[in-house]
Design goal:
267 residues; 8 helices
Length: 267
């Protein structure tokens, strides 16, 4: 991670001074600019890249362009405050902190205020039909669904995720009105559904795929049956070995019986 390396002897995190300074500046920059996108734009302006490093096998991994997701990972990482996350609990770490806890807390508060902690379900609460399906015609990135409110009116649109993460200069494709795109797609689907030749082709293709999958499914069923028989034989062999060793036989009422038998008691 940016700012640290792993000591080969102690296996603990050791601070890399130059990277640590960059990590601290990232947090300060976010507090100064007030948003992820504004901070990312300034990072691009300064020419910063993510951490470059070399693997144990000697392969060099160069740094990449910063985006909102990568920056947010740094901003929410408790490691930078000398902490460690263990089974959901934040504990004091054995490494040196890069920033103080107060700075990290102020960053987390700003992230919550900006609403960047919402989950995918919340972001898609309006049921965007083309979410995960539409692509940017310029860079090929996914078109994410967003919305804004003005009074009681809701305006939904799709925006290129490259522009969303790295700024409009990196993704010049304009935002597109969501309802107009959905209406157009639905209209085209209706036209296709009324095409008798296409309906026949779809039916023939579905039948072909079904016929093709039957031999594969039969082979898979036979494989599972053989596996089940093999496991049953292995259980018998183990039980015979236990009996030959003079161990008491396991009764059906024992909780250690495998496989478990269905109870004959009826409610």
């Amino acid at each position: 991670m940016l700012g640290y390396t792993i000591d080969p002897v102690s296996k603990r995190l050791v601070v890399i001074p130059d990277e640590a300074e960059t990590g601290a500046q990232l947090l300060a920059l976010y507090l100064e600019r007030g948003s992820l996108l504004a901070a990312v734009r300034e990072i691009h302006h300064r020419g910063w890249t993510t951490k470059s490093w070399t693997t144990r096998k000697g392969t060099h991994r160069p740094g990449n362009v910063w985006d909102k997701a990568k920056l947010r990972w740094v901003l929410t990482n408790v490691t930078y405050a000398g902490k460690t996350l263990h089974h959901g609990h934040i504990l004091n770490g054995e490494h040196e902190a890069i920033v103080d806890e107060d700075t990290l807390d102020r960053v987390q508060e700003l992230i919550r205020e900006n609403g960047n902690g919402c989950g995918g379900t919340v972001r898609n609460k309006h049921g965007a039909l083309l979410k995960g399906l539409s692509k940017c015609g310029r860079c090929g990135a996914a078109m994410a669904h967003h919305y804004t409110k003005k009074g009681t009116r809701l305006y939904r649109y799709y925006v290129c995720t490259t522009a969303q993460k790295q700024g409009r200069a990196a993704g010049p494709t304009p935002s597109l009105p969501a309802q107009e795109i959905v209406d157009f797609v639905v209209q085209q689907l209706r036209k296709l559904a009324c095409d008798p030749d296409l309906a026949r082709q779809v039916f023939e293709e579905a039948s072909r795929q079904q016929q093709t999958s039957i031999p594969r499914l039969r082979a898979e069923r036979m494989r599972l049956q053989r596996k089940r028989q093999h496991q049953a034989q292995e259980i018998k062999r183990l039980m015979a070995a236990i009996a030959a060793a003079g161990c008491p036989a396991t009764t059906a009422s024992s909780p250690d019986v495998w496989p478990p038998r269905a109870s004959s008691t009826r409610s």
